[in-house]
Protein: GMP synthase [glutamine-hydrolyzing]
Amino acid sequence: KILVLDFGSQTAQLIARRVREQDVLCMLVRHDLSVERIKELNPIGLILSGGPESVYGETAPKPDPEIFDLGIPILGICYGMQTICHASGESVKAGDVREFGRADCQSIDPNADLFKEIPEESVVWMSHGDQVENLPEGFVSLAKTSTCPHAAVRHESKSIYGLQFHPEVTHTKFGSQLLKNFVRTICGAKGTWQIASLIEREVEAIREYVGNRRVICGLSGGVDSSVVAALLYKSIGPQLSCIFVDNGLLRKGEVEQVRNEFTNHFKTDLHVVDARDRFLDELAGVTDPQQKRKIIGRVFIECFRTEAESIEDAHFLAQGTLYPDVIESGANADGPAHTIKSHHNVGGLPAELGFELIEPLRDLFKDEVRAMGLELGLPPELIWRHPFPGPGLAVRCLGAISEDRLVTLRDADAIVIEELHNAGLYREVQQAFAVLLPVQSVGVMGDARTYEDTLAIRAVETDDFMTADWYPLPYEVLQKMSTRIINSIRGINRVVYDISSKPPSTIEWE
Ligand code: XMP
Structure:
């Protein structure tokens, strides 16, 4: 395995994930892990991450100096490289050489192992305030950029390498190849590790941590909570209780699907709370989007709490927090990520429910969670299901919500999704759904005049849901959706297509 020593970089997890993409086990550890402990963990290589500090800062984090004598390959990235040079007694220059973003990197020694199969010139991504000025004794330069004479270095006799740029980000064109060269060629990793090993490790860790106590897990019908539940079930079986609050705002077939999975396949102790009437009552006559969200958030917590309290020996609460949630909520407190998060939390649970939290997916990225879910035996339809907001259909049923309108919306949405599948486009778009508008217009059906609601179709493509563009669905697909909806769903006589991007629109309509 490879250990990544985390010096506080935003991208430390990303480094670990890139290594795992090479089918090599990788663990993130504290930057000052003792050399004794490192020996126990027995890694085949170490990567020192970047970090926000300057190596000259008083609080500059430092690794155990003996790691350089372990005899295993070491790669320092950005701050990690500066640490290596600093530890070897050389100067790191601060100030006027700050460099952020794209740079052209030219290799000096194209035969170096680290640069195997990488062109002599390639684009790399820099993000640093300091850089290494003079190379410490015994080090040679492997690559440079126009402002950085030592963009990549290595020790002449020891297997110690440094990079001033970030190979883990996708903007560094050959970054993955570079990391592959390090872990596979230089460290000699076989590349036989699979997601299954990650599951084994998680399972062991959960068993040890949980002991014989009970864990409750809230299911939402989405990927993350399902994977958490499946993972816990594999780890502790009957000590797991799942709670699924049916708020009546779910997509068609969703309750049955969860019930099927978690009573038949995983055979967990599943508590389905039928809170449909409760939610409908509380939402009666409410039209303001923020008000809807608030009510749904509150009622969900109340329902969940009551059910959780009925499970007597419950000790832990499992949550499907992913790594991107962790960084987003830590960084940029005032940035857009934060705003998005605060409404993401609608349909989430507050910390003060009184349980000890466990978050087994905290170190993982979405695609790793999906891979894990498939490996754990969750059905692919669930794994690839489009995301669905906590407040559910309530924020897609504009204006006042009623049982009838929810049924209309749910059926129309099912047609949109079915036609998307029929056209083979479901996985081309990241999210698609129907929105029921409180707008009536005149139509004619048979010989009769109608005056009925409008349905909007939304389909977007996006990388991260922070920005998105409307997806150009083919006319034939739109036509099928429209015809089926108007012909088969009572109360809708007009279908429109949403052609707005985010920003300035949002993905959801409320
Ligand atoms: P917007 O509408 O803000 O949505 O562009 C971005 C993504 O977030 C989802 N979303 C939510 N998810 N609780 C959630 O769990 C919420 O309250 C919530 N609101 C929006 C939305 O479906 C889209 O994927």
Q: What stands out?
A: Residues 329-344 have pLDDT under 50 and may be disordered.
